[in-house]
Write a structure and sequence with these properties.
This protein has one domain (3-130). The protein has helices at 3-6, 8-13, 19-40, 46-85, 94-130. It is 81% helix and 0% strand. With 134 residues, the chain is mainly α. It is elongated. The chain starts with a helix and ends with a helix. The longest helix is centred in the middle third of the chain and has 40 residues, at 46-85. The chain contains 5 helices and no strands.
Length: 134
């Protein structure tokens, strides 16, 4: 059992599970891998390269936002751990915590929108090759 799993109950009491942020981490890592691979292997039209570059910048910005939320989540986890070890109630501002959850939701929506654009770009590149381009 990981440290994070030990304190999931405290997160759950507040309507949040840390697995949400973990899934976003996986999605962003996969998108980073895709954009890096596609950028290195530029076997497609310049218009697609520009779209790929912009997508890559967007994915990196999302990854930075993810890191900020991961640090914030770790802070809550630390507070839950300290509270448990000192046998006191966690000192968590519920309004701030709800804001954190909202930012995780917003990041998730932005990441899924970027993933949709990545899939569309892959389709355009495939179409280019199927039609004899590049």
């Amino acid at each position: 059992m990981t440290d994070l799993e030990k304190y999931e109950g405290e997160f759950a009491k507040r309507g949040y599970l840390p697995v949400r942020l973990k899934r976003l981490e996986t999605l962003l890592k996969n998108m980073q891998d895709f954009t890096q691979y596609a950028a290195v292997n530029q076997y497609h039209a310049d218009a697609h390269n520009r779209k790929l570059f912009l997508l890559s910048l967007e994915v990196e910005a999302l990854a930075l936002d993810y890191e900020e939320l991961a640090v914030e989540q770790a802070g809550y986890q630390e507070e839950f751990q300290l509270a448990q070890q000192t046998k006191r109630k966690p000192r968590v501002d519920e309004k701030e915590f709800k804001g954190f959850v909202k930012r995780v939701d917003v990041l998730g929506a932005r990441a899924l929108a970027a993933k949709t654009r990545a899939v569309e770009l892959v389709g355009k590149i495939q179409s280019e090759y199927e039609n004899g381009g590049a």
